[in-house]
Structures are given as structure tokens and as C-alpha cells.
Batch of 2 targets.
Target 1
Amino acid sequence: MAKVVSQLDHQHTFESVATQWLSIRESSWDPEYTRTVRQRLELNAYPWLGKLPISSISTPMLFENLQRIIKRGAPETARRVAQIYKQIFEFAEAAGITPPNQIGNLSRTLPAKRVKHFAAVTDPEKLGALLKALDSYSGTMPVCCALKLTPLLFCRPGDLRHMEWSEVNLDAGEWLIPGHEMKGLTVTKQDRPDHLVPLSQQAIAVLRELKPLTGRHRYAFPSARGGDRPMSNNAVLSALRRMDISGDEMTGHGFRATARTIGAEVLGFRPDLLEHQLAHTVKNPLGRAYDRTSFLPERRDMMQTWADYLDSIKTECALMSSAGPFKPVQAPSLRISTG
């Protein structure tokens, strides 16, 4: 009997169990996220734990493994790997491979996470200068259009670069992002709600200009390496850096914070409309999440008002800064090159 148990232990190595877990979970994940999880295991776990029977692995062994990651200067990776370990051992327990509570709470062994907010411009004068600089960017047309749309749409950079022409109705002025394509949501792909983005006249104009170039492709912003893949997730970020705008000053995600702050504090938009358009979970008085068409007329008006406002501050900046490039009053400054 002891020999049989020993054989079963070695059949259930950490790597074999992790592979079983991954094969089940990947059906509800984006392929890109699946690749990331697999790579984290291959680089951080399998070389040290992969061949061990999973029933022989203890909390101190995992702690030692995580400390190895931290010592190489990757604490965030260590936190992500710890979350993966937790899920693998929960799977093994449910499958009857390991006893209950074989490992302890790994999160208590890790350094506290430092919260870092995405840099964003929230001063209207600085925002006008930034928008003016974006319009002057000299790069490929898809990247130029992405830069123009990013401030207009309230969406995550990942959602924008995955925009498909089949999702866009220019006549209706709508972009419907399927729930399974939404980024930044913790629920499984099957449960993610669709997200409707009303398009302002300015956004429609940009997309109409782009469509003759990329309309034959699946993605509105195709990869330079081929139209069957979306634009690189670094394309917009690289464009900002080429304009000498650092990560401490503005990011692609930062435009969402810009819209949230200025929309509320300057334009007086209702917080629930802003949150809904940012694809955050907003519930009605009965505790149910609003669906994609909730407050659609109000959100259309908000998005058009926002686009008109951006035009106005950009025009005002162009009139006021004709004597030279924009220099903000307070540090950190926006080092924007308009040449």
C-alpha cells in the first residue's frame, strides 16, 4: 500500500498538477493572460518545484521560492506567483490530491504592495497643451489616430488597441466592446458584460479617416507585422515617450483619470455616468448593475460635451502659446516637443 501511495505521489508532481489546473482555467482566460501565467510558472516555479510530488511541498518551501524572486528585484512578480500557488493548491485539494490546508497564507510572507496611480494631467491648461502636442505627432496613421482617440473615449488602452471594425457602427455613433474582450475585469470572460461607448462626432471623424487604410483588417489598429494581430500594447506609450512625455507625467491609462477628474470637477458630469462610461461597476438603487444601454442619451451628451471641451481647450492653448512651446508652472513639467 505504501508503494502504491508513493507511486501516486510521484505521478502528481507540482508541474503535472499545475498543468491540469492551467488546462481547466485557460478556457475562461484571454490567451495572452494564459501565456503570462504559464511563463511565470516556467520561469519561477518549475525549475525548483516542478518535479517534486505536490503533497511534499510545504509553506516554507514556497516561501523560499518567493524570496528568490523578491531578491532579484521583482516583488510584484512574487505576489502574482503566490496567487498562482494558492489557486493550484486549492485545485489540488478539491481534486483530492493534497490534504486540506496544506499550505498557509503566502501573502503574509510578502512585502506590502506599493500602490502606484497612473500619471495623469488634470489641469485644463496643461491638458490643452498635451492635446495640441498629440495632434502634431508625426508617426504612422494608426498610431496618430489612436493618440487622438485615447482622450476622447474613456477606454482602457488595451480595449482601444483591440478595437475591431465589426464592433464599430459609425452611422449610429457606437462602439460595442464584447464582454469577453473587456480588460481589467476580474470576472470570467463568459460573465463579463458588454460595454457600449457612444462616439462623439470628433471620434467618428477620426475613425472615418482611418477606415480606408485599415478597414480591410480585423482590427482598426493592426500590428505593423500583420493585420491579423492588434497594435502593440507599447505603441501609444512609445509615441508619448517620443514626444518626451515621461511616465511620471502621462500614460495611456492616465487619460481615464483625466476624464474622471476634469469631467466631475470642471464640467460637472454626474459621477455615476462617468463611472459607467469608464466601465466601472455601477449599481442602481436596487443593487443591480446597470446594463450597457443605461442612461445612453445622457452618456451620448456627456461624450459629445467632453469632446467639444477638449477642442476648446486645445484651441485656446494654440492661441495662447504661439510664442513658444508650453511650459507648465508647477513641477513635474510636461516636456512636450511640438516640433
Target 2
Amino acid sequence: MQERSGATPAEPAPEPATRQAGPVMVLVRPQMGENIGASARAMLNFGLERMRVVAPRDGWPNPRAVAMASGAGRVLERAGVFDDLPGAVADCDWVLATTARGRGLSKPVLTPERAMEQARALGAAGKRVAVLFGPERAGLENDDVARANAIVTVPVNPDFYSLNLAQCVLLMAYEWGRQGASVPPEVEELAGTELAGHVEVARLGDHAEARLAAAGFFFPEAKAAGMKRNLRNMWARLRLTRADVQMLHGMLRKLGRGIGD
């Protein structure tokens, strides 16, 4: 499906009710089909499917883009193709331009995090947001940036700030997906077991203390109480699983042969 400037942009299939429609990712004069395909993959990784392509250098459709998309072909199939940028953003309410260079233009400069916060708020209000990405050689031109409401700049190394087109799309798509995800910041993979209970860990501490006492570890006597306390603290801090506790009991029994048994 293609769109051309001057035509009413065709809409993709409705987004699932459980997911907010994301921003339109607009690739302005992209040069390499591989980067268009990689951008489609990056978008779909984080639930974005609305791509528009402005004046692609090698025409459209692009077989190299399709090959690189590798599973994200539907993003390319539904992408709108425009002859110029004004046509690509004519139906958009808020436009963000990604650039790493100062442009001498009076505009807000946002981090990707802040930009996607705005995109979510505007999207929830029924507004359409577009994010512009420039061609690989030199990025967006000043005339492109002038059409945007705000600039998005990724905080990269100032001595090497050039980002590949698909990398930049990935960063923006990731930030969009991250803010909408209900994923806990940390999980513990227990691999079929479960964390040991307080009593189980206490018994392990008793066992270890008995074996160490039999081996003469708690010396000198004046320091024994502090040493035992530190060991108890260590066992409690380790977040042992039941499998860990069983293995450590086995190790202590084996090491204790000939000492206390």
C-alpha cells in the first residue's frame, strides 16, 4: 500500500484495544534499503507499525528493505510513501525531529524519554505524533527540522555522535515500548526451585557453624561470637534457594567426614 503527497494517508488496521497507537516513524530520504528494513524490525520489536518513507533514494518497493526486515515485512507493506515531507506530516498534530547537531533554531530539545512521554500523552488525547529521521549521509536538513515542533537529541558521546538510521529508530521505539510496558525492573529466575525459607537457612547456618567449630575455625575465643554473627548475616544475605541449601548441606557433610562424623 502506498501513499503519495497530496493524497489522504491510508490508515493501517486499528491497533488492538489494549495497546495505544504509537507515533508515525517518518524516514526522510533514506538511502539504503537495508536501513529501512532494519528500522521496520526495530519498530515491530516494540509494537510500532506505522512507517512513512519520504523520497527513498532507490525507489519503492525496495527488495533489500524486504530482505532485511526479516519477519517485520508487514510494516513495509503498510508503509506510506511520499514525494516530500510536507505531504508526509500533513495529517500530524505534533512533529518531532531527531538530530544530534545544534541547528540555530528556537525549539525545545528533548531527550527520547521526554519525547515519548509527550507522544503518549498526545496519543491518549487522540492526536497523531510523527518522529522524523534523516538520511544516512548527513541527517535531516534545516528545512526539515524547521517543520518540527521540537527536537529530540540522544545523549551520546559528543566526540562521536553519529547514529545509524536504524539505531536511532530503535532507540526511539525502545523508549516508546519501555514506557508502556508493565515489566518489573528485576526478576529472579529460580530455574524450577524456590527460595529457601528462614528456618531452612537457619538450619544450614547451624550445620555450617557446627562443622566449622569442629574444625577449630572460631579462634580466638574472644572473636568467636562476632565471627558467628557475620556468618549468620552472610547466609541471610545470599537469598539461597532450596536447591542451594540442599547442596550446601551435602558439601558440609562431605567435608565433615573424619572431623565430626
